[in-house]
## 1
Amino acid sequence: MNLLQHLINGLILGHAYALVAIGWTVLLGVARLVNFGHGQIYMLGAFVTWWAVARLGLPYPVAIGFAIGAGLLLGLIMQAAMLRLTFEQDLVSIMIVTLGFGHVMRGVAGLVFGGNPQVLETPLSYVDFELGGAWITGQDVMIVVVAIAVFALLRFGLERGALGRTARMVAEDPKLAQLAGIDVRRVYFSVFAFEGAAVALAAALVAPRTPILTNIGFEEVIITFVVVVLGGIGSVGGSYVAGVALGMFTALFGGFVSPAYASTAAFGLLILVLVLRPGGFALGARAGR
Amino acid sequence: MTPLLEARNLRVAYAGHRALEVPHLQLAPGELVGVVGANGAGKSTLVNALLGWSRGHPRVDGQVFVRGEDVSGMATHARVARGLSLVPEGGAVFMRLTVEENLAAAGPLDGSDRPAHSLDEIYALFPRLKERLHHLASALSGGERQMLAIARALRLGPSVLLLDEPSIGLAPKLVTEVLRQVRSLVGPKLSVLLVEQNLRAAIEVVDRLVLLERGRILAEGPVAAMRDDPRILQAYLGEAVA
Amino acid sequence: MTGALRLAALLVSAVVVFLLPAQVPALYGAFTVIAILAVAAYGLDIVLSDLGEVSLAHTVFFAAGAYATGLLATRAGAGSWATLGAALLAGVAIALLLGLITLRLREFVFSLVTYAATVVAAALAHNWNFLGGSDGVSGIPTFDLSIGPLALTARNDAELWPFAFALLLVTLYAVRQFRRSRPGAMAMMVHLNPRLATMSGIDVRRVRLGIFVLSALFSAAAGWLYAYQRAYVGPDLFETYFLVLMLTAVVIIGKRLLLGPLLGTALIIGQERFLSFGGDVNAVILGGALIVALAFLPGGLASAFTGLAARVSTKKDPREDVVDA
């Protein structure tokens, strides 16, 4: 493959990354929360999509709806369990609890979906065409289109207008936001529901590219970390750019160096950023206060 | 006439230790009541408890009525919607929002029958805010922030405005200005409960005084009768000595 | 209870625990594993309870100890003393590296990097042939700590139990002494009020790094013994199972209780060994226990029990002090 082909692949991969990470970006930006069960919601989202298509015989778009619904529900359940911790801003406990949720989700997935790898074939993955020497499927195009749509929506919704203002007020000072008449609890629930739904949507679109197993999701968490940190914690536009950049980097690294160590390289990139510009984490350092 | 605000058996405890015990407190329409007392007397605890709000985790018991409606079981944001508006200590505004956004954010709440102050009224009250409309709140001076905080609270269309130490950290000239503005706000549809450390300034504007000491009401009455009460002097002298 | 009485009670229970498997041989396996994993959990406990940070890299230290042991024992024929040294060295080296990287990071960024380190270490273990790849390292020889004429070997769980028990005792003693030491006090200060700690002349970064490295020693030592217990080392050591197990063990009984992680580990391994419902259900139970302990039982099981006991035994004095607020 030549450079152009790698770049095209990187572009697609990058949009997939950005889409996988967007839920966490919002979670962090608005509610100052983290979710170490992120990868397992991705895994469950992928399984639910597969199950709706292969077992229920539903059309793929309906299956995507199922996955989003499942992710949304998971987000609500998690936030309900962590409501007290959220109001106390006990980030240490929240991190551990979300890890616990991840572990539970893996167990549940094993019980419900079994240990066999599943392959999800979507109608769009049969549509393929050549672009600059690279073979692209309809699925790839859809990932790019949906990612752009979600980011555009968020950028206009979250960074302007009344909704965005509410989000920024809660992000800056949830206690003061209550005095401004905002139902902070509802904001927390909405944000966590969005996190779950967004990562499940990403899974429904991205997971068909690879076999679906109960132990997937870890790579996605690393990717999300890198995107969120590179993009400037909580920034919607930043995480889009970071996602695409990371996709390019991974495609080139995988193409020219070693595909097995692509996520290791991404981690290396994260370390580099952390060591070079630790000042970029003003928001992160304040997150627990 | 129904009081705009009434509290019965209000008790607040932090980690099992009682911080406040107020059997009864009320605000008639058009009243400006000052809550005075030494540091740690429970003044902030009192106004925060009326909204069920705190930066800590106190336990609050008792009943609070706004225009006759029991709001005790309600969350803070719901009490705000019923007409209670608090400006907490330290002129709390959203630093990362502009002045305009701070004011817009607190626009009249849905379903409220109370007239909120329009932006024009706000600008008439605090002309400086209009000049600073597009600045971030973090770029304002202390006095301007305090004005913005009060303006933000007024934009919620309150029946009762609770002000916690609006004069803290302000130059003496500004204190008089801010308190005079507060006085001008009071009317048949808006009562104000003013927590004030600056006793001399407070006496000039309030109708009634409530003296708190160690979480209890020590004395209460019209300002004319209270201004020479030795207990008030004592409370503040004690503070000055400490 | 007076100090002497308390010490006597502790000694008696230690002896009882030590002798118990001899009466019920079926317990040897479970007790050995509990002791080993509890030691691993104490490493995490110091960072979580005393430093107040969530390290998600302690499985890496644990696995580093196990891998160092497995590789040296099978490829270089090293004895158990040598592998112990290598295991501790491997744990310290990785902790030092990771600690330096995360020196200026706090809270979730710190946790995120440690978690990423675990995922990357797992990828390395799966892909790097030097580490045995996905097959891992099998055929680890018999545990042998013999010194001269003194024969100290262990071929099975029953023979390994005294060593695991000894390692546990050493760990308990070390953690107890640490909490009473100046570094332990400094850790708490750094945890509770970093600014005040700085003003008191404490080098916050140095304390954090020191404690991170110290904590790795425990987990790596546990990994060393675990390699002999299983006679096999593989990439499964990096699975979230071990991470969630350690975290649950630390928080379920209650943070900063000396025996907390041990009892927590015993509860978890006990359930898996004697009341197992299969791997998937066990995962749900383990993760669920972690969620419940933190989200619904602030202070862990210990405070839930004491709270319950207090409610049953005495009614609370209705008069409460009025304090300044």
Note: Chain B has a mean pLDDT of 84.
## 2
Amino acid sequence: MPLVVEGLRYAIAGRPLLGPVDLRLDHGGITAVMGPNGAGKSVLLRLLHGLVRASSGRISWAGRALDDGIRRRQAMVFQKPVLLRRSVAANIDFALKLRAVPDIAGRRDELMRLARLDHVAQRPARVLSGGEQQRLAIVRALALEPDVLFLDEPTASLDPAATLAIEDLAKTVRDRGVKIILITHDAGQARRLADDIVFLHGGRVTEHTPATRFFERPASAEAAAFLAGKIVL
Amino acid sequence: MQDFAGAFTLAFSLLASFDADLYEIVGLSLQVTLSAVLIAALIGLPVGALIATTRFPGRGLVIVVLNTLMGLPPVVIGLLVYMALSNAGPLGVLRLLYTPGAMIIAQALLVTPIVAALSRQVIEDRHGECAELFRSMVVSWGRAIATLLWDARAALLTVALAGFGRAIAEVGAVIIVGGNINHVTRVMTTAIALETSKGDLALALALGIVLLIVAIAVNGAVSALRAGTVPASHV
Amino acid sequence: MYGLRSLGFVAVAALALASLAIGSARAGDFIIIQSTTSTQNSGLLEAILPEFTEKTGIEVRVVAVGTGQAIKNAKNGDGDVLLVHARAAEVKFVAEGWGVKRHDVMYNDFVVVGPAADPAGISGMSDAVAALKKIAAAEAPFASRGDDSGTHTKERALWDETGIDVAAASGGWYRETGSGMGATLNAGVGMGAYVLTDRATWIAFSNKGDFRVLVEGDDRLFNPYGVILVNRQKHKRVKADEGQRFIDWLTGADGQRAIAGFRLEGQQLFFPNAGGATN
């Protein structure tokens, strides 16, 4: 941190999907990325995390270009969690070993308690409920000891109770000093969690404002329409 | 066909009598085929994983060839191995012809394409699910492959069983390179071929039933092993 | 890291394979005989070989295939001794330098077997050529080995004498199985076709159905077996000393007595006649 994005564009087969985007995100807190489907939210997240390569433009984290060294300081949780076909504990161990974390057993137990999964430690990860799977994916990402955590619609298919558990977990993570960049469609969630909002429309950032101001007086017409519950195309 | 009932009775009385010759033949069948499947797995799994996780020019062609090789007739493999291991062949110096080693080589050649082709499919499917996660976590290629192999272990065991089934049941390759020598290279299938040629159809059928029982035992053992390492709900 | 480990696994497996192979190849002294199915299917070799092994400590490993295949394998050096029954081919094998010398060992005879119904009416005939002519005239099914074996060679020679072009009837009443004696007998019994077989295989054969011997006793049905040491000049790995010891035993008093003593269902299957040798 800080993250600086300049003139970022992404196109597939000549068809532009995103950009140009200019953005600056500072250390700490939760940034929510909002916008209608197809606005380019997921593409933006993947570009920032280096999962896809930009067609043009520049991304720098604390002045450094995105390389594997930087990427090891980041972690991402996908909308549909990808879990390894092994136990809950072994899923976390996998990440801990990857970063050669000392005291694997102690760290793993702590993370499982954090996700309230300690009672299912030896269960196969794939038999967990949707909410449990998502919590496991989040603490497994934490096991990588990241500075930045990307969450791609982590509660998209969860019920309110499971959503609340995820949000609580996100707050705890934030309080530990991890920067969270979160995609959400849920204005209520953004209101509950976010410190600032990046609103995307048609592949461009139409506004980037502190959350309080965004919900009171959105600057862009698209964001206003979105918040008013209108269908934005 | 009173041969049927007779064959069943004979099969079980053969097993129950602990006939030393029969157990020797069964033992050699298992030794040869399990060794061949092990070698095929050690070669085929990395090859399958390599093709599943990399992109290179001609990859589609390689997959087509690999899938085609699954249908290679055992007798053709037997001939190729015979020509290689014959004293007149390039590897004659190894003195492997008409030994269990030659049979293992032939069956390993038979099974390796099966293991490679099927594991390629299994691993590629799993890789599709995990590739983005691995990239996100900055997982090295080697560790990614090891993880995929472990994650797909249930399906890969089934792949190995498919190879085992093909190898233990084939006669065309082992009879050419093994020679069906009594007490040396006689296995279940070549013994069945021999008894058939003697016109002793009941004994041949009984040996066939014994072969099935052995195959069931191996499949059952693997199934139990799998239940031990992979909970059913986890497959 | 994974690459190295899997390389290690492959290396270990290769070593295990090699040691296993060496273990089985070096286990004691042994020779390999390339022989025909009749000597194996009848149980002759299994019955007489233990005596030789006990006396000499040399194990005899028998690869039983058709005579044509046995000769090819021996030419490749994949056997130390050849024990087959197609005299002309054997003489040629020696003449071309593949074998050292051909020794007479034993003989029996060929017979024509067929269904009890005997559609060609050949039962009781002793003129094999005349019997084959009747089969052809009746277009009764005849199952041929069609595999270049000793029996097949004999059968072709008999057809040549009839002057009938069986190749033209192939697929019709003349059916080539391309298989061993046992498989051809199984096929013949299955489709009610006449078969030319050596008597030893026939007597030992269990799946006779209603088939029986219909034609026998023709001098032309004589079936001599020869034994030949594969020439070390052609393949230096041939175990000439052990092979020669086997030939000496088989054609000597002990071997000949063992052959004469082998009986199946009370019948003597092979008749020793050693003494003659063809260079």
Note: The two ends of chain B are 44 Å apart (CA to CA).
## 3
Amino acid sequence: MPDALLSVRGLTAGYGAAPVLQEVDLEVAPGSIAAVVGANGAGKTTLLRALCGVVGATAGEVRMDGTDLRGVRTQDMVRHGIAHVPEGRGVITELTVEENLRLGHSWRRDKADGRKATAEVFELFEPLARRRKSAGHQLSGGERQMLAVGRALVARPRLLLLDEPSLGLAPKVTAQIMALLRRLRDDTGLTVLLVEQNVRSALSIADTGVVLSLGRVVAATDAATLAADEDLRHTYLGF
Amino acid sequence: MAYLRTHTLPRHLLLAVLAALLLLLLTYLLPPYRNYQLATAGAYVCATAGLTVLVGLTGQLSLGHGALMATGAYAYALVSDKLVDGGTTGIPLLVVSLVAAILATMVVGFVLGLAGARLHGPYLAGLTLTLVIVVPAITTTFAGTLGGDQGLSVTVDPPPVGLGAAFPFERWQAWITLTAAILTVFVLANVVHGRPGRQMRAIRDDEVAARLSGIDVARTKVGAFVLSAATAGLGGGLLAVLTQSVAPGAFSLTFSLFLLMAVVIGGLGSLAGAVWGAILIVVLPDLADSLAEAMPVSSNLAERLDGNLAIGVFGLIVIGVMLAVPGGIQGLLVALVRRLRGRRPAASGPADVGPAGPAAPGPGVDADRPDASGPSGPEPAADPARPRTPSSGSPSTTTE
């Protein structure tokens, strides 16, 4: 296995006194898709938030391509190549599709490349291109998810963090989003860390899988093995 | 027209020039007292336009804009006094003092903004409220410099001789404040429609998402406060020019609430709405007073109503507007104009529609869209927080 793009060691984080995450270890290889699965309250969202500094970590270390991310502010994560599509997507509902995308690269100095990245996103998500002047609140759930992913992509990240992209979407739409992630990984070498309750569809596109339970990693292996392990599924994932 | 739709800067410039010409004409048509009222509205526009950007776009509630205006007014009085002593007169006196008013208020706004970036909603409102309440105390404490309850008097030079000896002073005042108002709205319109405006709205909508998109939330919030303070300071300085005096009584808590209510009634987040609001602050007390006089009430009651009725009327209008037209006056006008044009509910504001025409909702991944039936739905409610074009200039531009 090549050096990990993202490596997490002993990460402990939470809200207030009781830690939600306890000593989480995690590695994501460049150009791979890692799926973090687990039941409600397992700490999946907290993990992504702790990686981006939205939730403060009390112990442990997060390295992105060797760089220690401790003390890096949330708004600077994107400058380290990390784009995070938050839970609930974080589409700015009163801005148009185009404005949301411009927001995604507004921190960059290279305006021309920002426009190019936007054009690429419109190519990737054809339905978004048709609705570029629509306000965020006029979009469907699937379109919002596309927009959220698109806004993350215009920042040209090396690592894409996705929090429950399937939430509230029709199975067909979920499948489209998952297929697209797989295509991005294959075509551009994008590294993806995906948090999902929808275990089947997440593991179907992932290279590696991590099972979180009550804030601890209980299994970490390749996705196919995880999907085939009936005991694990019964114990931690409930199906 | 297509060029103006896609290029905001030339469009705003054109609107500003049109507004200037129209207002210039107006100052020649109006009698002196009406010109004075117009001038007052111009001063208020500076403050309300900055306030609507702060409250409407970044979602930072300020109840203390009256205090910021007071800061500007006192700074104007103090600096112009020194300048007069030094022999400065005419337009340099005016401009330098106004710049001083803006800078002084920006400093106060910066400090408030630093606190504001850490406080949310009611806590920030409380902090700014405190500021308004301490204004009289400060002026009393430093009575030697600030003149206590009596305040300070301000020297305002007559119109330049080049305009002729008979040039009315009120028209000159109107020129001063309206120039400032147009400049303020022009600058703010470009801020609102550009990158900072998008970032502000993103922060109000979803702070975490904004930060994850690389936006420095604290810096943007402080920036918005400083910008808003600058325009409030300018408005305050202009009020000093108009009344030729500065006193704490002019910047009461009621006045601060008036500003906020005016912005809400005009249409929160809309610069055109801020213009409507400023006009209301000038016109409404007048109307309320005439109303009180016309009412068949005892002289005792009429005396008590005098001056207070306006507050009541303002409050009632706010409640009415909130219930009936949350988009305020501007939201209502935009909806009316669209209906008159018989336009289908386009994806967004009329001026935002690109050359390709209204975006047709395509098939695509919208199986779960609630209104998948197509564009036959009702008019989307005018969003109060989105400053719609046609806006930004003067009331006259709302019909485009």
Note: Chain A touches chain B through 50 residues (CB under 8 Å).
